[in-house]
Amino acid sequence: MNESRLAQRAVLQGMFVVLCTLFVFIRLLPLNTGPDPWPGPDLMLALTMAWAIRRPDLVPVWLVAPVFFVADMLLMHPPGLWTALVILTVEWLRKRQRRLRTLSFLAEFALVALLVTLLVCLHWLVLTMAFVSQPGLGVQLVQVPITLAAYPVVVLLGHYGFGVTKRPAPEGFGRGAST
Amino acid sequence: MPPWPVGQVRETRLAQDNDRGNDQFRPVRRILTGLCIAALLALFLVWRIDSPRVERLRSDIVDTVLPHMDWAMTPVTSVVKMSENFRSYARIYEQNRELRRELQQMKAWKEAALQLEQKNARLLDLNNVKLDPKLTYVTGVVLADSGSPFRQSVLLNIGRRDGIREGWAAMDGIGLVGRISGVGDETARVILLTDTASSIPVTIQPSGQKVILTGDNTALPRIDFLETAELVRPGDRVVSSGDGGVFPAGLLIGQVAKSPDQRLRVRLAADYGRLEFLRVLRYDGVGAIDDIGTMVRPVGVAPVSPSGEAGTVANE
Q1: Is residue A166 part of a domain?
Q2: With contacts defined as CB-CB under 8 Å, which chain A residues touch B60?
Q3: Domain B137-281 is of which CATH architecture?
Q4: Is A137 exposed, middle or buried (0-12, 13-18, 19+ CB in 10 A)?
Q5: Lowest-confidence range among B41-50, B109-118, B132-141, B246-255?
Q6: Which domain holds residue A133?
Q7: Span B183-198, mean pLDDT?
């Protein structure tokens, strides 16, 4: 970990904040104020998961928490819950990062699909248990495939735009040897 | 314990990456993460129990963040809108002709409206009717959309500073749009009629039936609690009824429409596709009548204080 790599990491972390701000910004633009039949993709979640799988050091908790919390507040979500769920997911991925490194993209995609569905269901479950009025689970699950469709785009953007790639698995840290 | 020699791996690890933080800090990190999640969940619980307090925090955050984004938002919005308008230039000739034709019709209507207005004024004068006092309003610009696909609200650039209060009605030029819910210093949020949290008492015009208009995240809100459906036809006017004292009575909301599944819904008069300027009506509800009527007594009898009188009546 030398100086230049530290600087690069700081730049990419800054980029994460900038991209998230951009995504929130796009959604807040008052272009079409009527109800949309199709919800847009949850780009922030896709970005966070893509980067958490590739470079967990770019999405530390002290960065993800405030970004998602402010987004929660601005986008009228129930405050805190979604943020907490996202942090849990990121930590879960961080813990398994050595195993994730050897994953093919298809397997990674399946994992992300599972996690996003699980997140939405969990979010719905907690809100239901707290008797918060919310749209039905089916309506919310419609957003999942849309988010997943955006996932490869986000990954490619990270890959070619910012060089966020999986690090090659170091020798002796293969599938069998990982914790 | 890992199956590899620890010292060597440790060096490789430190050299390779620092993803999981230094080993000696890892427990601390884990505790901090746990605390962070616990704090967020606690906030969620507090929000659930004492929502106004947290919503105030939310409107404070919105109030500090959004005005800073405005400088970027306004140009982007206007550029996109301009490009949309530019597309319509292609058929400008056609549109022009259409507009001329409509203008002709409008002139006829204007004439009719003027005559009716005069007639109405005369009749009102004859009947000596006291109408509602004129409502004054504050106009605001729409700053931002709610951003969430499941919430229908917009943010205005006026707030407590301009005297905006919770619950006031917001209209575009024609029809009711929603009500103020959440006021910051410089911003205020308007919950649209299409939001699931919005249900307002309305009257369906010719038949005078009172129903509740409930938003359900579609463009056409639902009509609930309709007593006799036979009296309501698609095309009937829907106006606010003023029940509950939330909205002034008689604000235009839209027309009744029938959805394909034979449900009665309301096509809103306000142009929800492009909300730009909204009027917020200053209205604090009708003043309640708070004193009980006192007894009418002949002239010359010494007045008794109303409270004392009420007491004697009660004792008898």
Answers
A1: no
A2: none
A3: Beta Barrel (2.40)
A4: middle
A5: B132-141
A6: 41-161
A7: 90
Report residue B174 as tokens.
């024609």
- Residue A34 near chain B (CB below 8 Å): yes
Least confident of B98-107, B147-156, B280-289: B280-289
Domain residue limits, chain B = 69-127, 137-281
Length of chain A equals: 179
pLDDT band per the 50, 70, 90 thresholds, residue B305: low
| Whether B12 contacts chain A with CB within 8 A | yes
**Partners of residue B76 in chain A, C-beta under 8 Å:** 29
Cα distance from A138 to chain B (closest Cα, Å)? 12
Q: What's the domain count of chain A?
A: 1
Cβ–Cβ contact B192 with A under 8 A: yes
Q: Is B147 on the interface with A (CB under 8 A)?
A: yes
Residue A14 lies in a domain: no
CA distance B91 to chain A (A): 22
d(CA B59, CA B153): 13
Q: Kindly report, residue by residue over A42-71, the tens digit of the pLDDT.
A: 999 999 999 999 988 899 999 999 999 999
Nearest 5°: CA angle at A91, between A90 and A97? 85
Rounded Cα distance between A62 and B36, Å, is 9
Hey, is B265 helix, strand or coil? strand
| B266-278 pLDDT, tens digit each | 999 888 887 888 9
Nearest to A47 by CA among A59, A38, A39, A57: A59
ipTM above 0.95, yes or no: no
- Give the best residue of A76, A90, A134 to mutate against chain B (max B CB count within 10 A): A76
Q: Which residues of chain A have pLDDT under 50?
A: 172-179
Q: Which residues from B are below 8 Å from A34, CB to CB? A: 194, 219, 272-273
What's the first-to-final CA gap in chain A, in angstroms? Answer: 22
Q: What is the pLDDT of residues B191-200, one digit of tens each?
A: 999 988 888 9
Distant-in-sequence, close-in-space partners of B284: CB < 8 Å, separation ≥ 6? B165
B147: helix, coil or strand? coil
Binning pLDDT at 50, 70 and 90, where does residue B310 land?
very low
Residue type present at position B147: G
β partners of residue A76: none
Domain annotation covers residue A139 = yes
The answer to whether B154 and B146 are in contact (CB under 8 A) is: yes
Average pLDDT rounded to a whole number, residues B219-240: 89
CB contact under 8 A, B145 and A75: no
Distances (CA, A) of A160 to A91, A152, B291: 25, 12, 75
